[in-house]
Design goal:
single chain, Phosphorylase Kinase, domain 1, Transferase(Phosphotransferase), domain 1, alpha+beta, 2 domains, six-stranded antiparallel β-sheet, three-stranded antiparallel β-sheet, 9 helices
Length: 269
Amino acid sequence: MGAKSCGDYRKPMKSYKIQGIEWFVEDEGLIPVLRNVVIPDGSHGRSYVIADYNDSQIFIKSFKEKGLPGFIRNRISSRGKREYRLGNFLLSRSIKTAKPLGYGVSRMGSYIIQKWIEGRSLLTVFKESERHSELLEMLAVFLNILKMHHVRHNDLHSDNILVCDEQLYLIDLHKTRIKASFTLLDEASNLSHVLVNIYSYLDSDEKSAFFASYGNTGIQGLVCLLYTSDAADDLLCVDLGGRRIIKKKNRQKSLERKHPWVFSRQYIF
């Protein structure tokens, strides 16, 4: 999948300034809602609010930026705008996510407006359900779709996948990258993050069945191998046997020199 313009995912937007926030929305009908709802200021990092809109609900998430780097990022490519564009990209590839309706930018923060999904996290469903085989098969298909479209989420824990009407939805997209090429580490990152919280609930047969459904039984060994290699320093993860290993990216440049084929940074957006 080669690099391409993101212009395909842009829609006509209308701009309105309300209480210091410049909003960009697809539907003017959102403006009365934005004027009347108490928008979270993001003073505690990310904040959320749910509001009624027509016959459904919307979800507004705020991102607070700190310091000069955050100020610059907010001016160049705010996280709210990134999540809006990423949501449209995923939907254009038939990857289910919350429908983005607009975004906002203020002096030191940004906002994303999405259609509210009435679902439960994959982790919650997994804990409460005995349908492990069915859920694992759904997850394997879902991960393969992400791989096919070069989607590296970078925070793909099982609370960032919602189950709604027997389908999986990807949420919390602002760290996501659409890669021009998809390396083994990109694939292992998605796998390791999503398996962290649910792997201990699986017996050996279920684990084997999951990787068989995923279509690459060899990746199980690769993911485990990464935890004991230098490449593991790029991951914040838990060993699949349940032993917590937290690594930082403090040797990123050294690792990129050692493993250039793994640490490809090319991405579309």
